[in-house]
Please model this.
Amino acid sequence: MTTPLAIAQLGDPVLRQAAEPIQDVHAPWVQTLINDLLNTLYQSKGVGIAAPQVASSHQLLVIASYPNARYPHAPSMEPIALLNPHLISHSNTRVKDWEGCLSIPGIRGLVPRYREVEVEYCDRHSNLQRQVFTDFVARIFQHEFDHLNGQVFLDHVESVYDMMTEQEYLRRIVNAE
Model:
C-alpha cells in the first residue's frame, strides 16, 4: 500500500470551507484522489472520509463501512465513492449515536442524525446513482456530507456532556456492550 495522505485536523481552514463540485469525473487527478482516499481511510481505520479532510476542497466522499478497532460493530459493505452528492430526502426519525472523526482525533460525540437518507451522486465511472442508506451507513454519509459543507460532527453535539475521549468511549461504550 502507498503512504496515506495527511489528514487535515480541526482548525485547518479547509475543514470550514464549502467544497467545489467536481467537473470532470474522469480526470486522472479525480481517480487518483478516490484511490488515495480509500487507502488513507483503510490505513486510518475509518469508515468514511471526505476530500476536504485531505486538503482537497472538492465534493467527493468515500464510504467504506467495515468492523475495525474504531467501530467494532460496523456493518460490512463494499466501498463506494460519491462525487457531487446531494441529499434528496430523509426520514423524520433521528437517532443519537457516538461519532468520531479522523480530523478530530481522540474525541467522540453523541450526535443526532436521520435514521434514513436518500442520496443522489455520481459514481467514479460518471454514472448517476440514487441510493437509500439506513442506520450506521446513513450516519456515515451525513457525517462525511457535512465535511463538504464546512461542518464537523462537533457542530451537531447538543451538549458538552455528550462528548468524551476516545479512550473513555472504548472503555465505557464499546467494552460495555
Q: What stands out?
A: The chain has one domain: 13-174.
